[in-house]
Specification:
Layout lengths: L6 E2 L10 H7 L15 H20 L7 E4 L2 H15 L6 E5 L4 H12 L3 E5 L9 H7 L4 E5 L13 H10 L3 E5 L11 H4 L3 E5 L10 E5 L14 H4 L7 H39 L3 E3 L10 E6 L4 H10 L2 E2 L15 H6 L3 H5 L1 E5 L6 H21 L10
Helix pairs in contact: 1-9, 2-9, 3-4, 5-6, 9-13, 10-13
Bound molecules: pyridoxal-5'-phosphate (PLP).
Length: about 400
């Protein structure tokens, strides 16, 4: 029996764990199982492995080792950054600034803080999903304690002017956090050039294991821990470290950061070929997100008169795994908050398809998508009832 074709183009949701990463992790489940807090040789071995991963990750973003706090992933890093700063700086003010297109790990954390009395300003974005730094500056009040704006968007790939926003935050003495989960090891990151005080990253988006991430915390930033227990992670995150996960994260960061320059050129070329071909061969389609200033591995199309879910399922039946929005909302049929922020028409937000590329993506796989997509869209349009005044193709 012929093996079914399976093409994975959903790297923004998660990436396959690299073989070298698995190999590096394995001993930490068996021979090298020690607790990094133990003083004997088993403990020291584990402690050295955690320190090594910390150094690798710190180097990638131009940070110091003791500014890297390991967490359980991007979601925890965002929670620790936002709640941690809010609770530790309550005496200074209760106002936070963020954007309308943040990941739910940020937006839902803000919602929780609003219930506790914090005031949150949600900055709108332009039609490409970009925040205007002037809007951020204008929103700052005497009560503003935190600005949290993501580096690159997980749905549409748009990159934000982080350094400019960072400068504004610094000038106004406001703590600045960025969620860099999607950009880490895809775009260069320098915490000093960005003027950020906190930066969230996650292992499973770059070929590392799931359930591990990190938060960069600039020295001197006032932050309250969310977990209480031992003195782990410089007293900022209690709990015995996920040693094997951290080792895997470090190895993935080492490989992905070394490959980044070459890979971003390769992926951007494939991305642009896919965009050009789809825009020219399929009627009633637009590109969501910024035409140039976007992640090298992100493509997001909006098809008029097509349900994104139908598209996804038909592509899956032909062996292609893509997404309609962010991984967290792929079971939720309400339109994406990111697409609604670009254009409030819910009809347009429904027909979206996100294709995200990564380290195992091959040219032939993109060729296959280019070949099958026009037929798939045509078929769905044929079976979808036309709604007068809504369906325009
Ligand atoms: N932030 C962004 C921008 C993301 O894309 C994701 C994951 O999709 C997260 C945060 C959450 O990361 P994790 O899955 O590691 O909790």
């Amino acid at each position: 029996m012929q093996k079914k074709k399976r093409i994975y183009l959903d790297y923004a949701a998660t990436a396959p764990v690299r073989k070298e990463v698995v190999k590096e992790m394995l001993p930490y489940f068996s021979d090298k199982f020690g607790n990094p807090s133990s003083l004997h040789s088993f403990g020291l071995e584990a402690k050295a492995a955690v320190s090594n991963a910390r150094k690798t990750i710190a180097d990638v973003i131009n940070a110091e080792e003791d500014e890297i706090i390991f967490t359980s992933g991007g979601t925890e890093s965002d929670n620790l950054a936002i709640k941690g700063v809010a609770y530790a700086n309550k005496d200074k003010g209760n106002h936070i600034i963020t954007s309308k297109i943040e990941h739910h790990a940020v937006l839902n954390t803000m919602k929780e803080l609003e219930k506790e009395g914090f005031k949150v300003t949600y900055i709108p974005v332009d039609k490409y999903g970009q925040v205007n730094p002037k809007d951020v500056e204008n929103a700052i009040t005497d009560d503003t304690i935190l600005i949290s704006i993501m580096h690159a968007n997980n749905e549409i790939g748009t990159i934000q002017p982080i350094s400019q926003i960072g400068k504004i935050a610094k000038k106004n003495d406001v703590i600045f956090h960025t969620d860099a989960v999607q950009s880490f090891c895809h775009l260069p990151i320098d915490v000093d050039k960005f003027n950020v005080d906190l930066l969230s990253i996650s292992s499973h988006k770059i070929g590392g294991p799931k359930g591990v991430g990190a938060l960069y915390v600039r020295k001197g930033t006032r932050i309250k821990p969310l977990f209480h227990g031992g003195p782990h992670e410089f007293n900022k995150r209690a709990g015995t470290e996920n040693v094997s996960g951290i080792v895997g994260f470090g190895k993935a960061a080492e490989i992905a950061s070394k490959e980044m320059k070459k890979e971003s050129v390769r992926l951007a070329r494939l991305r642009d070929r896919l965009i050009k071909s789809v825009l020219s061969s399929i009627p009633g389609v637009r590109l969501n997100g910024h035409p140039k200033n976007r992640l090298p591995n992100n493509v997001n199309f909006g098809f008029i008169g097509v349900e994104g879910e139908a598209l996804l399922l038909m592509l899956d039946s032909l062996g292609v795994a893509a997404s309609t929005g962010s991984a967290c909302s792929s079971h939720d049929l309400s339109p994406s908050h990111v697409l609604l922020a670009l254009d409030p028409d819910p009809v347009k937000a429904h027909g979206s398809l996100r294709i995200t590329l990564g380290h195992e993506t091959k040219e032939e796989e993109i060729d296959y998508v280019i070949k099958i997509l026009p037929g798939v869209v045509e078929k769905i349009r044929k079976i979808t009832p036309r709604i007068e005044g809504v369906t325009t193709i």
